[in-house]
Write a structure and sequence with these properties.
This protein has 343 residues and is an alpha/beta fold. The protein contains 5 helices and 14 strands.
Amino acid sequence: MKFLDLVKVYIKSGNGGSGALSFRREKYIEKGGPDGGNGGNGGSVWAIPDKSLNTLIDFKYKQHQFAKNGKPGQGKKKTGETGQDIFLKVPLGTEILDENQQIILGEINSENDKVLLLPGGTGGLGNHNFKTSTNRAPRKFTAGGVGLEKTIYLRLKLIADLGLIGLPNAGKSTFLSITSNANPKIANYPFTTLIPKLGVISILNSNITIADIPGLIKDAHKGKGAGIRFLGHIEKCKVLLHLIDVSSNHLLTDYKTVLNELNEYNKELLNKPRITILNKVDLINENILNKKIELLAQYEKTIYPISAINFTGINILLKNSVKKVVENKIEKEKTKNKWDPID
């Protein structure tokens, strides 16, 4: 399935049905009173979650989403049928933006989320509503309300327990392929990964999701290399795994470049739980590795040296990553359940 994380959609709610102009007409009953029923309400437009989706590709081929109109009222005070709602099924982590992509109209982050995008038009009133003591045979009725329409953008930010970040060619795709059920393209050149990919890791009786975010580069926060869209996916990840190519001759620069891009895009990203990993230890000897760990230790207390190719250090890293995810969930639950005593 192709991945698409930003799409424009045209939506319209249904018109309300008109009220009916009708009078009771039955045998042996003369001058029956007004009995025109109300029109049905127009259908509304909703956004709802679909856990089976991880892309917005469906909307590329169906950009116009219109709810049904309400039916007009009928005689015998029969109310018209309500127009059918339309539901935009989107992946978890979807933001609904206005036409200028500046205002967030709603978000779908959990299975229980449901966002009303446009209400349907109200059904018109039939003439029986206008009967009074002085007007026994009103011919007045109202038309249904006109449905609303607007252009919106759907923007997907992948929700994952673990998010792989790092410069191009840091070994993220290889790491994803050996630790999860994902099957990313792997090669020894930058930008092998052009789109985010999701995988599932089964460990410690838990299934955790992991996202391979395409490699960041200098000035990604300015949009270079489609960096802004890539950085957006990082926001929804619970724990970040920062992979660094230990064989690089510019280890500290590589380390600081990624963190700087996170900071420039959104300072809160630096507050996310983060695990620092030195990958490709199979390419250097132990003495050089120790020197590089010592160099990085001035910035990070815990560093995990691994080789994704040889599976060196992977098990301990994954176990600690799962613990970090669990700790993060517990901490968030505590924060959510906090309350202030009444003075």
